[in-house]
Amino acid sequence: MPKGKVDPANIPNDGLTTRQRRLLPITAVHTGPGKGKSTAAFGMALRAWNQGMNIGVFQFVKSAKWKVGEESVFKRLGQLHDETGEGGSVEWHKMGEGWSWSKKAGSEEDHARDAQEGWLEIKRRLADQAHDFYVLDEFTYPIKWGWIDVDDVVATLQSRPGVQHVVMTGRDADPKLVEIADLVTEMTKIKHPMDVGRKGQKGIEW
Hints:
Its EC number is 2.5.1.17. It comes from Corynebacterium mustelae. This is Cob(I)alamin adenosyltransferase. The chain contains 7 helices and 6 strands. The protein has helices spanning 18-22, 37-50, 69-84, 108-128, 140-144, 150-159, 175-180, and strands spanning 27-31, 55-59, 90-94, 133-137, 165-169, 183-186. Strands 3-2-4-5-1-6 form a 6-stranded parallel β-sheet. Strand 2, helix 3 (69-84) and strand 3 form a beta-alpha-beta unit. The protein is globular and about 55 Å long.
């Protein structure tokens, strides 16, 4: 793991000191067909919480009935912060009823509206600097489906005030997101238990 070492040839001529660059907000994208995109994002959020940052998680695709193991942990960490002041505050939001894991009542227009309303809420929070660290989980899908305008997302992220870190997850990230991101990781599947008929397991998938 590199410890802050940089290539002098790649240092931008932006007039900033090394310390100032360390305080810049990070835009991260976790994409690709492999497992672990959301898990890695929640790991980053855990580090951020430990540093006293306020966490906002916004899930865009997983069903509201889908029990994500990290949700229980982060909600308990939020309670711990409220009770003791340790770490940071935590908010966890499911956008609509979820669209990919099971069929839901309502039309595609209903789902698109829910996704757009979720994005507008995030825009408001970014403008208000409501959180220090945002996880936009499965966010690439409503963009891919045309429910959320990628140009609006790009403009909002590039103009957000303060030091608000944002990590987005999901397959098939739009090239425009990849272009503006500071940190991009592509998860590549080599093998998966489901390839040989094994279903999801407790402690592994949830």
